[in-house]
Amino acid sequence: MTSLTDGLTAEQVQFFKDNGYVGPFDLYEPGEAQKIWSKAMIEMALSKNKPHNSTIINYDRHLDCDTLSEHISRPEIVNKLRSLLGDDIICWKSNIFQKQPGDAGTGWHQVEKYIVGETTTAATPSLNFAYSRDDDTVLQDVSVWTAFSPAKRENGCLRFIRGSQKRWFYDETKRLTKSPERKTDFFGYDYSELQIDPSWDPEKDDVVDMEMEPGQFVLFVEKCVHGSLPNISDQTRLGYASRYVIPQTKVYEHVDKLVEFGDEISLDYHGCVLVSGEDRYGYNRIYTKNLNGYEFRRVANA
């Protein structure tokens, strides 16, 4: 009998390799998911150890919210990550994605190194990988997107272009320009400016609308072109993305602050969390406890 905490099957691993994503999988019951998010919201509002003061760059609240600290290393998530990344895994970043009624969709985009400074020509990568990204036999990063509300077409579900991780459609090193009047979910930045072929129409490709129930999660590689639909409903869509790499990856190696979407934060607070296995490299600051003293869980080998 299959357990929720099992890893991926061979067929699911192959599906991920072919398509760039796999899921959704069950994690919480729908009602439980919404209660968990309400608890997390209260913790974040009352936090005395908030990592940074930005209201735009809503990153890394797993470092000061005990509920999210527990979430990032749930066995249901980690054991599936092991099937893709191996036993040694660190969580290096998390994002809150809240889409209010009337909010625009998030434009199609494709990420490799999370280039810092969208409006500068001297951009710096957030991730320096251990192996060449041309070597598709080694997977080095996976994102886990968890729905804490219904995520349907009408309120802005996540979308993928199936198999798009096999080639580059966007150049993240190119310069973006800000136009506040733009109706995009990138704070006035339009990622279509980064298209390598301006004539390519993503909407005519093999688009998958990833509808999810509260408490479900999907795994994907950031190289898989993804975005989201606009929220044309009266219901807010809540998503939380936790991001994982192998410890050989150097995180923020030459970066001491993030300058993104018109905001800026220092990275003095930042640290990675070892959710599985060992870190034999010592490239990154590793936190064993969050900023409140809550001890992070490392999932034991199966």
Characterize the structure shown.
With 302 residues, this protein is an alpha+beta fold. Helix content is 15%, strand content 24%. It has four helices and 16 strands. The strands form five sheets. Strands 1-9-6-11-2-15-16 form a seven-stranded mixed beta sheet. Strands 8-7-10 form a three-stranded antiparallel beta sheet, with no helix packed on it. The longest helix has 17 residues, at 30-46. This is Non-ribosomal peptide synthase. It holds the Pfam family PhyH.
How would you summarize this macromolecular structure in one to three sentences?
The chain has 302 residues and is α+β, with helices and mostly antiparallel strands. The protein has helices at 10-19, 30-46, 66-71, 75-85; strands at residues 21-26, 89-99, 115-116, 124-125, 127-128, 141-147, 158-161, 207-210, 216-220, 226-228, 237-245, 250-251, 257-260, 263-266, 272-276, 286-287. Helix content is 15%, strand content 24%.
Outline: globular
Rounded to the nearest angstrom, the distance between the terminal CA atoms is 16 Å
- Unreliable stretches: none
Q: How are strands sequenced across the largest beta sheet?
A: 1-9-6-11-2-15-16
Fraction of helical residues: 10-25%
SS-derived structural category: alpha+beta
Strand content: 15-25%
Task: Chart the SSEs and their pairings.
Blueprint: H1 10-19, E1 21-26, H2 30-46, H3 66-71, H4 75-85, E2 89-99, E3 115-116, E4 124-125, E5 127-128, E6 141-147, E7 158-161, E8 207-210, E9 216-220, E10 226-228, E11 237-245, E12 250-251, E13 257-260, E14 263-266, E15 272-276, E16 286-287
Parallel strand pairs: 15-16
Antiparallel strand pairs: 1-9, 2-11, 2-15, 3-4, 5-12, 6-9, 6-11, 7-8, 7-10, 13-14
